[in-house]
Amino acid sequence: MSTNAETAFALYSAAVGQSEGAGEWFEVTQDQVNEFADVTSDHQFIHVDPEAAKATPFGGTIAHGFLTLSMLTHLQASIPQDPARFAGILMGVNYGFDKVRFVSPVRVGSRIRAHAELIDVQLKDPNNLQVTRRFTVEIEGGERPALVADWVTRLTFG
């Protein structure tokens, strides 16, 4: 009899290398950028001073790269997932990132969404999987993505 983790491992393994699709669009607002600046104490003018930022090559304020990265939690939630992969799951935790690249700035007022691709899964022991998904955050109307990140999570099954 296989464990929940082994069943999930088989399901994930069959999907490695496949796109998981795209999530919903999300608008990045000046209020969000300002709140992130307050929490991180990063008040560089390109993020929080719309008038001064107009004189930069960006033409206005931009989101912090780390704000865009932290939005992955929200952005990935609207990407469809096979519910069978989560049968018996107790928890999922962030394990880290193998690679993160901030490719293009996200201008305030832009809409972004994430695309996901499953790139690796490992059965760590009878109850735990390590899953790596590559996220590409697209800027609506943009030619290049805002960010590309390989996000590693650990899933614990009962």
Could you tell me the CATH topology label: Thiol Ester Dehydrase, Chain A
Largest β-sheet summary: 6 strands, antiparallel
CA-based gyration radius: 18 Å
Q: Enumerate how many helices there are, as a single number.
A: 6
Spatial shape: elongated
Q: Could you tell me the strand content as a percent range?
A: 35-45%
SS-based class: alpha+beta
Total strands: the figure is: 6
Specify the CATH architecture. Roll
Task: Catalogue the unreliable spans.
Answer: none
Helix content: 25-40%
Q: Helices and strands, in N-to-C order?
A: HEEHHHHHEEEE
The N- and C-terminal alpha carbons lie at a distance of 14 Å
Please describe what this structure looks like.
By secondary structure, the chain is of the alpha+beta class. It has one domain (4-28, 63-157): Hotdog Thioesterase (Thiol Ester Dehydrase, Chain A, Roll). 27% of the residues lie in helices and 37% in strands. The protein contains six helices and six strands, in the order H-E-E-H-H-H-H-H-E-E-E-E. The protein has helices at residues 4-15, 30-40, 45-48, 50-53, 65-70, 72-76; strands spanning 19-22, 26-27, 89-102, 111-125, 128-139, 147-157. Strands 1, 2, 3, 4, 5 and 6 form a six-stranded antiparallel β-sheet that branches. The longest helix has 12 residues, at 4-15. It is elongated and about 60 Å long. The model has no long low-confidence stretch (mean pLDDT 97).
